[in-house]
């Protein structure tokens, strides 16, 4: 029905772009309190494994999508840590 590389590429684009609104919202609001750190740690580990899987098999849609998604997930985790420290430094 569909070329599998085209289908995988489209799936990768959609699932990767889905993270952009969260990264942008977190960056603009300077708040990550409502984001589960443990969920994003587990998610980032899973994405890293998908990336390794794609690298082992040479599957470019899997490599590209998971490489970018891992960067976005790590950005959210970085914001989570950064804004938690910033909140702790503010006077009560």
Descriptive notes:
- This protein is an all-alpha fold and 92 residues long.
- The chain contains four helices and no strands.
- 14% of the residues are buried.
Note the total helix count: 4
| Main beta-sheet strand count, sense and barrel state | none
Shape: elongated
Helix content: over 70%
Instruction: Classify the beta-strand content into a percent band.
Output: under 5%
Rg, nearest Å: 16 Å
Mean pLDDT: 87
Order of secondary-structure elements: HHHH
Uncertain segments are none
Distance between the termini: 60 Å
Class derived from helix and strand content: mainly alpha
Mind sketching the topology for me?
Blueprint: H1 4-17, H2 20-29, H3 37-57, H4 60-89
Helix pairs in contact: 1-4, 2-4, 3-4
Describe this structure in a few short sentences:
The protein is mostly helical and 92 residues long. It has helices at residues 4-17, 20-29, 37-57, 60-89.
């Amino acid at each position: 029905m569909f070329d599998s590389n085209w289908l995988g590429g489209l799936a990768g684009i959609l699932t990767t772009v889905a993270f952009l609104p969260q990264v942008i919202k977190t960056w603009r609001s300077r708040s990550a309190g409502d984001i589960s750190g443990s969920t994003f740690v587990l998610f980032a580990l899973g994405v890293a494994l998908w990336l390794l899987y794609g690298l082992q098999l040479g599957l470019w849609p899997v490599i590209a999508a998971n490489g970018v998604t891992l960067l976005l997930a790590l950005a959210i985790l970085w914001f989570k840590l950064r804004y938690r420290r910033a909140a702790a430094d503010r006077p009560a």
